[in-house]
Amino acid sequence: MHLVMRGEMAGRAVVLRVAVAATVLVVAACSSGGGDPATTNANGSGDRATGTTTAAAGADLASYRWQTVVDAAPWGPRAGLRVVDLSGSLFVMGGRTPRNSPIPGDSDMWGDVWRSADGGATWARVVETGQAWPARAYFQAVTLNGKMYVMGGQNFGIPSSTFFNDVWRSADGATWEQATASAPWQGRAGLMAAAFDGALYIFGGSRNDDSAVIGPTGPARVYFNDVWRSADGATWEQVTPSAPWSPRAGGAVVVKDGELYLLGGETGFVCSPQPGCDPPYYNDVWKTKDGATWEQVTPAAGWSKRPGHQCEVLAPDIVCFGGFGQPTNPMDMWASADGATWRKLDQSPWNATSSDQVRYDFDSVAVDQPSSGRPEILTVGGDRETFDFGDTQNYTRVDDDVWVFAPGG
Question: What is the CATH number of domain 20-407?
Answer without folding.
Answer: 2.120.10.80
